[in-house]
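Quick check before the chapter quiz. The format below is the same one you will see on the exam, so make sure you can read both the input and the output lines.
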Amino acid sequence: MSATNSAAIRLLLAVACALVALGASADDHVFSVDHLLQIHQVYEAAISPDGETIAYTLNVPRDPYTAEDGPAWRELHVVGPDDREPRGFITGEVSVRSIDFTPDGEHVAFLSKRDGDEETALYAIPLAGGEARRILAHETAVRDYSFSPDGRHVAFLAREPEPEVREKLADKGFKAEIYEEQWRYVRVHVAPLDDHGLAGEASELDLEGSASMLHWSPDGAHLAVALAPTPSVDDGIMKRILHTVKPETGEVVGRIDTEGKLGGLAWSPDGSQIAFLAGQDRHDPANGRLMLAAATGGEPRDLRPDWLGDAEAVAWHDDDTLIYIAHEGLETMLVRQDVGGDPEVVVEPGGPALRSLDVSADGRHAALTADTPKHPREAYRWERWDDQVQRVSSSNPWLEDVELAKQEMIAYEARDGVSIDGLLIHPLGGVPSGGAPCVVMVHGGPEAHYSNGWITRYVTPGQILAARGFAVFYPNYRGSTGRGVDFAMAGQGDYAGAEFNDFVDGVDHLAAQGIVDRDRVGVTGGSYGGFASAWAATALSEHFKASVMFVGVSDQISKFGTTDIPNEMYLVHARSWPWEAWDFYRERSPIYHAEKHRTPLLILHGKNDPRVHPSQSLIMYRYLKTLDQAPVRLVWYPGEGHGNRRAAARLDYAHRLVRWMEHYVTGPGGEMPPVDLEPVVEKVMEKDEE
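Here is the expected output.
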């Protein structure tokens, strides 16, 4: 290439960058892709035993233009009763997780891998001030922990070390991996704590299976442990069983008979009962049933067997009363319920979308995380007699100066009469005559749902698209959670059937109301939503002008053979094995409908995805590229798995999604946009020159 041509290209690129940048950020008062780099979000919150102090972790994204690429940093912040605002305890380039207070309430404990650590270790930092110190290290990473009520012991989970012989073989180049046979189980360990809170030599409990979830009973007599037959992801999802064991010997004294998915748990104050979340049975795709069982084991009792909702988190209010977060449709609430009585809503729906719950020792105070359509997740406080939760953190004050588009809850009837709900973000400038262009955001799972909170993320950039004139539709199609077991199971055995018709019917509903221009609609989603996006670009191609498929499914037959969750797919999705219904699996695969492809499709996938193998995207690309009936592009993200964790990959994804929709839904269409992202190129070149 000549120097003249090179200079001309660089000039054109600079002009293009300037124009794109102007369109994206000419007004700092509307939400843009770059604002994603500024979003701070509370991840977890814990309350001190006396209910006075709340600790929380805060996700702080890295700036990919100035920092080393990687996932968000996670800081520790604390807000006490006399604090006007939270105090940063551990901040900067740190990674803090699994926070809890020590039983005496004087320290905040957390897991982290800090300077000098070979593996993740357990730390504690005093509330009164001072440096964090390591109180427990192990030869492999500490995965979870629980303090005994008297503070004299700590139980923890850690994976078995690599056998010495295998390490020696690897040093000599013998690195063969025997798939699903070289398991390293997660084991339970118990260590004494001295008068300074430092751990002594730990003992391993002899328990059968791979452990997860670890909770010491309030009376100090037992540990509650979830055990799966193997460390496989599939067994961890579908085959975990709760056990109660003696911490001194590991003797199992109780086994709670459940089948299917298992969620969080909470001991009763007297240690006689365990409340926990689980599936109704092995075919329930969610773990939202509120269960109660004796600590000695046996058959649990569903406290709300016919409830058309799901529990998200549970704790004990007092000896006989539970308190939990309830999801019903698009809204959440805080509920109190006597174990022998009816539920009582104490914080009504209509406020923040509640996400997590931690209750003080006396059950009178709680720390929660929650978000609203106006702000991402923050830390909240609740007091026993309050009918509202009180926000205690404000992590994104700059959002006050950003104009956000209206977010609205909607409901409509599907073509077969089933009621479907969802969220609509209106175009920021209002709906034009003839309706607005629209992007449908299909959630994954499908055992998930949208709540009426903050729903703008790198993979679902609603406010970004709304600022550019789009209506953005988030449907809770059948198969979604939050509406009881029957609704969550309504799509089983019917891949891409009525479930995907639901979001088409939602677009038709919005078009009939004059909100959406039916001829300018795009669709996107990740995982199961990626499957929906692939289906929309082929079998439903006549309905959509553009599609963005992320870590999605293209071939149900090969997907089953390459995933790490085959049993979950069978039990809570397909309800059949491929060899029992070859024709069904083939016909419910997007590639089967490749000849119908007329919708420009952008395919993006992490190259290390174990859930939906990257070959699913390659197959889709190769079929459509060979047919050459509409534009198709495949983007790999090296080092990423089932979703992007690193800052640069997230930013790249958001830019590509928005650009694809603007180009094909509202723009000129035709040839695909450039391979490189103009705003990113401009920033990188600018920083390089600095």
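If your answer matched, good. The radius of gyration is 26 Å.
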